[in-house]
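User: Please run a holo structure prediction.
Assistant: Happy to. Please share the sequence and the ligand.
User: Here you go; the ligand is T5A.
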Amino acid sequence: MAGKLIVFEGVEGCGKTTQMQLCSQWLESLGVSLIVTREPGGTELGCDLRRLLLEKSANKPVGEVTELLLYAADRAQHIEQELKPNLAIGKFILCDRYTDSTIAYQGYGRGLSISIINQLNYIATGGLESDLTIWLDVDPEEGLARKCQGEAALDRIEQETIAFHRLVQQGYSELAKFYNSRIVRVDGSLSQEVVQNNIQQILSDRFFS
Ligand code: T5A
């Protein structure tokens, strides 16, 4: 079978990491060869960029356009080093965030031009789109409450205002309406087990029927 790029998207704390882990175990049990990766931080260079992007430091402010360009740089490196080579050898790729994150966060959240973001996404990806994007739809308040219950301190973007996170959520909602074949909404507020069952059903229908 040809390689497939499957992306998980959503607001902070929507459950991507949890669901990708369950999904990779399920796919491996079916004998599917896969990798799990993320943006930002899917390469060594990307890990450095992730740290610069997510560390909150009063001495190192990150401008909005700088932020946009750093996410694009991370993506360009990720595509060349990880995504293209693994798709070429037929692997399934489970990727935590991709181009829609930039539209939702930098476009809707920061208010930067969607048309410029689309151009930058195209430059970074060479036009490589996901075969399927699972949008885990959770209210931003609920997602942030989940993060606050964890032990890790909130990162620079998680510390943004609730108004910012609501704009990001609006972005995902509009993207899912516009790209209604590529992006599939999954109710992320349900239990982890039910969410995983729903994801497995979607993947089965799309790739294994
Ligand atoms: N970003 C990224 C941009 O601004 N532009 C871009 O172009 C890109 C690519 C990356 C940051 O960068 C921004 C967006 C982000 O701010 P990240 O990698 O998404 O950050 O950060 P993570 O901490 O890995 O992910 P999240 O914060 O979004 O959390 P997850 O992975 O969605 O959630 P998860 O699975 O870790 O779960 C969070 C908590 O909820 C519980 C879990 O046990 C955990 O405690 N949980 C549930 N609780 C109840 N019910 C469920 N169904 C649950 N599922 C999980």
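Residues 10, 12-18, 38-40, 71, 96-97, 101-102, 105-106, 146-147, 150, 157, 191-192, 195 surround T5A (CB under 6 Å).
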